[in-house]
Amino acid sequence: MTTAKPQISLYNTLTRSKAPFVPMDATNVRLYACGPTVYDFAHIGNGRAAIVFDLLFRVLRHVYGPEHVTYVRNITDVDDKINARALRDHPDLPLNEAIRKVTETTAAQYQKDVAALGCLEPSVQPRATENIDEMQAMIGTLIQRSHAYAAGGEVLFRTRSMPDYGQLSGRNLEDNLAGARIAVDAHKEDPADFVLWKLSSPEEPGWDSPWGRGRPGWHIECSAMSERYLGKTFDIHGGGLDLIFPHHENEIAQSRCAHGSHAMANVWMHNGFLMVEGQKMSKSLGNFFTIHQLLETEDFGGRKWPGEVLRLAMLMTSYREPIDFTVRRLEEALTLLERWERAAGDAEPAAQLSSDLVERLVDDLDTPAVINRIHTLILEEGRAADGLALAALMGITVKRDVAVDDTVATQIAARLAALNAKDFAEADRIRNDLAEQGIALMDYKDEAGQRQTKWEVKR
Ligand code: AMP
Ligand code: ZN
């Protein structure tokens, strides 16, 4: 029996290369992923990010043991979009109550949606509103160390105070300058400086602080919450590609300058975009489908899509590549899952997975290769138990679908009736129909000389 842990390799955006993953402490492997801003339903692009980091969480748990991994995914419940939504949806309520209503309903919906996509609950899901003291403390430290200053009703990060600002995104300050809008806020020392704290008007939500009643900027939330739950430096920080700049770049600047450290996280991982006709799926473009909509309505492709199908459709592409979101992709995932379900029959997932079976998965989450492997195990090698266990490790439950057996049996009976009535066209139609679903029919005569049909799942 070999007990060697599989070696995980991960692509690191910071070094632009793939390397073996070595945790700082194998008894507490620490992962942070930026979570949702809770003002509206999450779309399936947000779902992709949740699935990718859930998959990583599962792989880390598999390798290091479930009790040795801490996964933090925050809930951003302070944001101007939330205020706007609260005013629009609950004009009759006091703003604080209206905001709480919006954030609580949206956060609960998010939990439900991503659970349906097969995502485990993270170890901690901190809310920004419950970590305001931590943010203020960090801002205080940054001011004290001359990395931040108060001006024009804001506290700003002094970007020039960090000589190696821009390493993650590969942007330097001059690029930022060139890209900055002409009308630079006059109170900024440098156009690249960003907000840590901003004053609130009496109608806006706010907290008392040494710099006046106000609210935190977005970036400081993640720096403060990751420190609280994972420490000053931790193993892996993740999010979608769109977060590299400015969000993650600025998180790094705040955390490293506040702690005087060389790294905020050792590995930075970013998932690719979910695209619709060549454009990133996003709220602002209006080209989105919510997870809820896909699960519960027939708006996309004329049917409801089970959570496992959506998850498999995401994992059919490597997490770093873009995905074109189409009905065809979901249909492919559905067909694949149905074929596994039929071919696996009564098999139960194996209790153990040998390390050669997880080789591709630990290689920077090569899920397309893993899906091929599952397919071969179940359909060609008669190793359904191993295939199911590997699928389960990716968060995909392959259920035995009794309804499918019933449909096939009904169609076979209809075809036999057609053959007996010499309606060969109808018999062929049924055979072709089933063939398209990956089911092959074989006719034979039983002992009494009666025509019978067997079926099997083809590759
Ligand atoms: P947001 O609520 O917009 O801050 O996004 C939450 C998470 O979803 C972040 O990690 C984003 O990078 C990610 N995300 C947003 N849109 C997409 C998309 N179209 N494809 C993949 N990930 C996305
Ligand atoms: Zn963040």
Protein model, in words:
The structure is a single chain. With 459 residues, the chain is α/β, with parallel strands linked by helices. The protein is 42% helix and 15% strand. The protein has 15 helices and 15 strands. The chain has helices at residues 44-64, 80-89, 95-116, 132-144, 173-179, 218-230, 244-259, 291-296, 307-315, 327-344, 359-362, 367-379, 384-393, 402-420, 424-436, and strands spanning 9-12, 17-20, 29-33, 69-73, 148-151, 154-157, 194-199, 214-216, 234-240, 265-271, 274-276, 279-280, 323-324, 439-445, 451-457. The chain has a four-stranded parallel β-sheet with strand order 4-3-9-10, with helices on both faces. It has a four-stranded antiparallel β-sheet with strand order 5-6-7-8. The chain has a three-stranded mixed β-sheet with strand order 12-11-13, with helices on one face. The protein is elongated. It starts with 8 loop residues before the first strand and ends with a strand. The model has no long low-confidence stretch (mean pLDDT 93). Bound molecules: adenosine monophosphate and zinc ion. The site of adenosine monophosphate (AMP) has 17 residues, from helix 1 and strand 9.
